[in-house]
Amino acid sequence: MDKTTEGAGRDGEPAELTGQPATPGEIAEFVGEISEDHGLTRRRRALAATSRLARRGSRAGWSGATSGGRWLTSQVLAMAPRLPVRDQQKLRAQFPGLGPEELADQLIRGASRASASVGAAVGAAMLLPLPSAPVEVAFETVAVVGIELKLVAELHEVYGLRAPGSAPERMLAYVAAWAHRRGVALVPGGLALAVGSPLRRQLERRLLARAGRSAVSLGPLLTGAAAGAMLNRRETRRLGADVRNDLRRRSSQGPAWPGDR
Fold first, then answer.
1. Sign of CA dihedral 182, 116, 79, 127
2. Where are the domains of the chain?
């Protein structure tokens, strides 16, 4: 079992969902597969993963909105460093001949389709008894946020504005960028994501809002599938556009970080 979830509830981060649907490592692996896949294969992977991972904890339940936000935040922070982000060299190799704008278009399009596939799969999975709904919502929320974090990180690569620091430090910065819906901003003294910090509270609010939208979209089979797909596609595309516009502006102004040439 992943150590980040095995000890939940013992180190100041209570396990607000029992029978957790998937570990952060499992969801990060799923995000890498579905966000770089295409067409019918992507949709089938999403449905299969929802069945395998989300249904595993069918007796889970929220213990309250605030504690649910803390749990979601801890899962996202544990997942982020595990996401398979492609650097600029890999992106250019995978999409030869594309300029930054065309490549950004491709990434946003792919991420929005991947998040739509997750929404459709979770909506379809709601044939399950109602008590399983919190597990489905939790899985969808963390998986879609993972897709969007990967998008945010790769857009920074596209525009040559990779966040400074080690890989875990960069992913922490991209989590903050996701919460603010813009490119990474340098903060004196580094980022503070301790429990109770302003940034962590903002992240919790964003995650709860996303989970709430996912819950509202759920419905019987085709209705829930269509609503979940539409909502996720729209939200991921909007996030990508917000971050991309900020990065485009910064890249036109010269070096992003101290010491860049």
1. positive
2. 16-250
DSSP, residue by residue, 118-153: HHHHHHHHTTS-GGGHHHHHHHHHHHHHHHHHHHHH
Structure confidence at residue 47 as a pLDDT band (50, 70, 90):
low
**Residues 63, 67: Cα–Cα separation, whole Å:** 7
Q: What letter represents residue 174's amino acid?
A: Y
For the chain, how many helices (H) and strands (E)? 10, 0
The token pair at 86 is 């492609």
Q: How many CA atoms lie within 13 A of 41 on its CB side?
A: 6
Cα 139 off chain centre by: 11
Q: How far is residue 122's CA from residue 35's CA, in Å, rounded to a whole number?
A: 16
How many CA atoms, within 13 angstroms, populate the side-chain half-sphere of residue 77? 21
pLDDT digits (tens, 9 = 90+) for 162-203: 998 889 889 999 999 999 999 987 654 455 555 557 788 889
Kind plus residue range of the DSSP H or E element containing 10: none
Say yes or no to pLDDT of 256 above 50: no
DSSP 253: T
Q: Which amino acid is at 126?
A: M
User: For residue 222, what are its two tokens?
Assistant: 């085709």
Residue 38: alpha-carbon gap to chain centroid: 18
221 neighbors 123 (Cβ within 8 angstroms): yes
**Cα 115 to Cα 164: distance, rounded to the nearest angstrom:** 28
| DSSP code at position 189 | T
pTM (2 d.p.): 0.80
